[in-house]
Amino acid sequence: MQQEINIKVVAQDRAKDNDFKQLFLEMYPRLVRYAVSLLGDGNEARDIVGDVFEKAWNQFSSLQMETRRSWLYASVRNACLNWLKHQQVEQTNVEALIEATRYDMSTRYEEHERLLQQAEQIARKLKEPTCTILRLCYFEHLTYQQAADRLGISPNTVKKHISKALAILRERMKHTNIENRRKNHE
Fold first, then answer.
1. Are 162 and 170 in contact (CB under 8 A)?
2. How far apart are CA 7 and CA 109, in angstroms?
3. Bigger pLDDT: 101 or 82?
4. What is the pLDDT confidence band of residue 9, given thresholds at 50, 70 and 90?
């Protein structure tokens, strides 16, 4: 009896391997072209499609045969959109860094350093998991998807925590700067 069950399991695993291999060989080039059309970056497109296929492999048994292809396309599209959103956030951060550098050149270096340290202190005091998510996305430069995968949460949850963290940072920095100006004028 146990041997029959083992034989059935091995046969099912082989069938899954063959089905997945066929799907991969057929869809990988198509999905890479699709991702390149969305991103304009071949290397990133291949990485995203590879990640989607890894997820497909892990969920292959639960994916219905009729919807696997559409699931792959939707997953690649969503992963590309997440990557583009993350690039937009990074571009905003780069612009802020450029502006901070300009500011640094026209003002005292010490003041700039003080503000950076103040922001880091505020960030470290954020509640979990907001603090960890902020660290993963801004200090370790993970995408929202990568941070979500690492923490076992959805990318939308990551996005909400980042928005919350940035709002707290802005508010506390503004509040602290107002207090410092008052002290300097007294």
1. no
2. 71
3. 82
4. very low
Q: How far apart are CA 155 and CA 82, in angstroms?
A: 8
SS3 readout for 170-185: HHHHHHHHHHHHHHHH
- The two most distant CA atoms of the chain are separated, in Å, by 87
User: DSSP character for 40?
Assistant: S
Query: Which of 92-106 are b and which e, b meaning 16 or more Cβ less than 10 Å from the residue's Cβ?
Result: eeeeeeeeeeeebee
As a whole number, mean pLDDT of residues 157-184 equals: 80
Closest CA to 99 of 88, 111, 112, 85: 112
The percent of residues above 70 in pLDDT, for the chain, comes to: 80
Q: What is the pLDDT of residues 27-63, one digit of tens each?
A: 899 999 999 999 888 899 999 999 999 998 888 777 7
Contacts of 162 (CB under 8 A, 6+ apart): 89, 133, 134, 137, 144
Sign of the C-alpha dihedral computed for residues 103, 105, 107 and 111 taken in this order:
positive
Tell me the C-alpha distance between 133 and 96, whole Å. Answer: 20
